[in-house]
Every structure is written in structure tokens, then in C-alpha cells.
Specification:
The protein is about 20% helix and about 50% strand. The chain is an alpha+beta fold. It has one domain: Hotdog Thioesterase (Thiol Ester Dehydrase, Chain A). The strands form two sheets. A five-stranded antiparallel beta sheet has the order 1-5-6-7-4, with helices on one face. A two-stranded antiparallel sheet has the order 2-3. A hairpin with a 6-residue loop joins β6 and β7. Keywords: Lyase.
Length: about 120
């Protein structure tokens, strides 16, 4: 099974809502980045993202978190790639002093499934 993983600190400036919450689009942007990474490793091309068949927002992502975005290849067609995505919170800020702690196990915040397409001329190379 092929996969790619990115980790990122969520800046407090990315929080836009009460409770220091980050919007759901933040996770989708990370899925785009890690999905592009996976496409490059699989096909030597960034690919073109066609869309999501499902997205589930399961838990909050907050400023100060450290998150891990993972893309896993589920199915490889001639030009299409079905990919499962998961965003996990692996560290969470404890208070206003900057104190943080590692979450064990990590908190699954977002899951999604999407399809990427590799241009025809790239699959013939």
C-alpha cells in the first residue's frame, strides 16, 4: 500500500472561530498537499484532483495543534487514483502559556476519500 504523510504545526493565526477553532478548509488544503506528494511518488506527476466522494469532520482542530495528514492509495485505475485521507491531531496545546502535550492515541479529526487523475500524456511515458 502506498502512502504519504505530512506533519504541520497549526499556527494560532489559522484559527478563525470561537474556541480557537480552525475551519474545515484547512484540513482539505493539507489533503491537497499530501495527495500531490503521493501522486508525484506514484506517477511522477502532480496529478489533477477531481473531487471528494466523502468528507467527515470528526473532531476540532485548533490553533497550537500539531497535525498529521496522511494520503493512502486505495485503488489505481488507468488514469484515476482513489485516495483515502486522514487528518490526526498528534499534539494539543494545554493552555495559554504555550504548554502542549502529545495525544496518545492521536485524535482523528477529519477523514475523506477523493479521486485524482493523471493526464493521459503522463500515463503513456
Amino acid at each position: 500500500m502506498s502512502k504519504a504523510v505530512h506533519r504541520r504545526y497549526v499556527a494560532f493565526s489559522d484559527a478563525h472561530y470561537a474556541g480557537n477553532l480552525v475551519d474545515g478548509a484547512y484540513a482539505l488544503k493539507l489533503f491537497g498537499d499530501v495527495g500531490t506528494n503521493l501522486s508525484i511518488e506514484l506517477d511522477g506527476h502532480e496529478g489533477l484532483f477531481a473531487g471528494y466522494s466523502s468528507v467527515e469532520f470528526l473532531a476540532a482542530v485548533r490553533g497550537g495543534d500539531v497535525v498529521e495528514a496522511e494520503a493512502t492509495l486505495v485503488k489505481k485505475g488507468n488514469r484515476s487514483r482513489t485516495v483515502d485521507f486522514e487528518l490526526r491531531v498528534i499534539c494539543r496545546v494545554s493552555d495559554d502559556t504555550g504548554s502542549s502535550h502529545v495525544l496518545e492515541p492521536p485524535l482523528v479529526a477529519v477523514r475523506a476519500r477523493g479521486t485524482a487523475v493523471i493526464p493521459a500524456d503522463e500515463t503513456e511515458a
